[in-house]
Amino acid sequence: MENYIIELLHITKEFAGFKANDDITLQLRKGEIHALLGENGAGKSTLMSVLFGLYQAEQGEIKKNGKKVTINNPNDANRLGIGMVHQHFKLVEIFTVLENIILGVEPNKLGFLQKKDARNKVVELSKRYGLQVDVDAIIENISVGMQQRVEILKMLYRENEILIFDEPTAVLTPQEIDELMEIMRGFTKEGKSILFITHKLNEIMAVADRCTVLRKGKGIGTVEIKNTTKEELSKMMVGRDVNFSVEKNEPHVGETILSVNRITMSSKLSKKDAVKDISFEVKAGEIVCLAGIEGNGQSDVIAAITGLEKVKEGTITLDSKDITRLPIRNRSVLGMSHIPEDRHKHGLVLDYSLEENMVLQRYWQPEFQTAGFIKNKEVRAYADRLIEQYDVRSGHGPISITRGMSGGNQQKAIIAREIDKRHKLLIAVQPTRGLDVGAIEFIHKQLIATRDKGKAVLLMSFELEEVMNVSDKILVMYEGEIVGELNPKETTIQELGLYMSGAKRNVKEKKYEK
Amino acid sequence: MRNSTFSPKLKSQASMLMKSKGMASLAAALLAIALGLIVGFFVMLIASPESAFNGFTTMLFGGLGRLGDVFYFATPILMTGLSVGFAFKMGLFNIGASGQYTFGMFFALYAGFMWELPPGIHWIVCILAGMVGGMLWGFIPGLLKATLNVHEVITSIMLNYIGMYLVDMFIINNAKMYVPNMTRTAYLPSSAQIPSLGVPNSNVNLSIILAIAIAIILFVVLNKTTFGYELKATGYNKHASKYAGMSDTKNTILTMIIAGGLSGLGGAFAILAPSAIAGSSMTYEPINVIAANGFNGIAVALLGSSNPIGIIFSALFISHLGRGGSLVSAFYGYKPEIIDIVIAVIIYFSAFAMLMSVAVGKLFRKRNRGEVVRGPNASLTNHVKGKNENKEA
Q1: Could you state, in order of their start, the residue ranges of all structural domains in chain B?
Q2: Contact A100/A87 with Cβ under 8 angstroms?
Q3: Dihedral angle computed from the Cα positions of residues A258, A259, A262 and A265, in that order, rounded to the nearest 10 degrees
Q4: Using the beta-carbon criterion (under 8 Å), do A340 and B388 form an inter-chain contact?
Q5: How far is CA B129 from the centre of its chain?
Q6: What is the ipTM of this complex?
Q7: Which of A85, A199, A426, B301 is positioned for an S-S bond with A151, CB 3.0–4.6 A?
Q8: pLDDT reported for residue B390
């Protein structure tokens, strides 16, 4: 009989006849790092919600140290020593680090806060585990990496012994990821047990002891990491072989399509400029990637090119026409397609049907309207064709409301719409964010196919593997400037990380005056 | 509503969706009315127990005997309801329907008194003048919202007062329009009055037919045209509509102009109605009161779910209650205020139930989130679950 600290045994959770978790068993050994792997919608979140007491399972039981426990709400989970770092941090932006850590368990005497004790405890914890934080800093002023350390300290402060990390590396630089892995290993030495939810296979291979794979609500199996390979894991996760290496030929670079000339943009958040006098070009037949840590001006540059934001200085030309001050509609007509960063905010009208979303940019063209009346037949035919061609799946075909569609299919719909539209330049912003391996593979193929048709592609991504594998040229942005221009074939992820964190630059510093 | 654009091929699926979505809002409205009626009955019971039952039945069914008046009093609130509902579709809250209504009334009065035109044309011109007046008063908040991002609720509330005081001032200072010793406007020439439909003892006139026609036109505009497509897209998600190259500025101004015009027409329809008493007409009293019909439009729009066709029925329903209510106060000695309270209770519950159904829908979505398979390999059966999420979307 092995010694498990927490066991989820034969968990079944149904929603209106559909099994989100179907007889899943997950056993966490004391002192191990246990990865939970699965595509989006495989049931990871449901399982964790059951463990956290947010849902009650219809069947199955939870055991702690071999004894059956019931968890009816998150407080129960806390009492059992279960803590979680959520993918989206649950921090009060305007509170200090210390205030956030003690939130909910504030030490007090007669209602008066006893911050000093708390402070000592936090400082001691952060030293012991090498979690560097400034306890008096305000959350909104510190880096994402430090915010994550605050979340981890929150769990430690509550003396949790079962730590759940939900996609913790999505927001970190390669160096920060390495640090986090180190910290996680440190925890296991102290006897804490870790559940590590992710879909990044490299990280599992690097840090986990065992891995449980879920697919479509079912537990596929638990494997020892030292006895398995990345390929095997991905096959378990997706149910078929996945091609990791992105296949592409040498680019046939043509004339310049997009040219950004010395643009400067003011920041909405601070007095500093968000984008400082940057210039670059994207030519037909190449994929140029804007890389960098979130918030270093890449999104602003994209917003300027697509027309969502105005530039302060500088010009942007598309196909040698000045588009700096053109409305969005005109840019679209001139041949710009845009896969936006946030598909829910910008990409789709979620309450519209799939067919209505398919003509979001083009409903006004003679093809789809006469005298202001929308031609329903043509819209339907067009949507049917795109759905067929790009394999967009949904419950009711063209009349499905897009809100009810899966994230991968929503993204496919946007990609179908943007690629099918007549264009010379395709701007793809984080096109694979939150998608699973199968969808990512599809989207990468589409991007490369677009490039091979002689279109210019501007990609913006935080996923370093994507940056390295898909692009023909990498521009690294740091604090509103382009600090590195790299050839993905001649560089490594580590080197890219150095540029991203501002430690290195190969583009000469310009004399910049604000 | 949107389902009406489906081709016959998918009609069975479409009708299924329509059922789920339409039924949900219909059920919400009926539930609201039922709850409101019960509470309303208790209010009457408290006010005067002995006549509560007779009074209540009169309130519910009394209007049936005076259908002409039900339609007559429905006309202005149908128009302001359309105004509010139309702006709602774009995500704008036009709380300024009162000001637009009053301005429309004034423009219609001005054209009626100051311009001499042949009968048969005069009243049409007056109606159009009223529409222009309302448009002007809708244009201002629209412009401010579109260019300076000033919230339309603030501007249009202020314009309610500005409009009302301005109109009162203009009328008092106009010797041809104002009768000082009666503190009201003079009688309009009969050429400026809208032709009656000839129902005995009722002022019901052609304008109710115009109003219903306008509602149907709006329905078509919202559901069949590119303008409606843009408008609803902006209302659902203004970021996506901006991304798609729709002009938020243009659409905001245009929507507010149209909303204002609809309220203005409401004012014109009200003031240009023919009087059942020969030689008289409707009159306006410049006594510094904001037109209640503007605010009633909000209730009408809410109860009708901002759907132009729904608004026709909700306007008729509220008007029907009002007619029954006036009979109750005449025959059973209830104060008109009590009747207003009962009507308000019913409207209040309708708004409450709308919120409830939205909240329930959201809750439902949340609980179901885990179940929808998100992945390209998801099978069709799993995706059918998405249907629940679509409701109340």
Answers
A1: 72-309
A2: no
A3: -10
A4: no
A5: 20
A6: 0.75
A7: A85
A8: 35
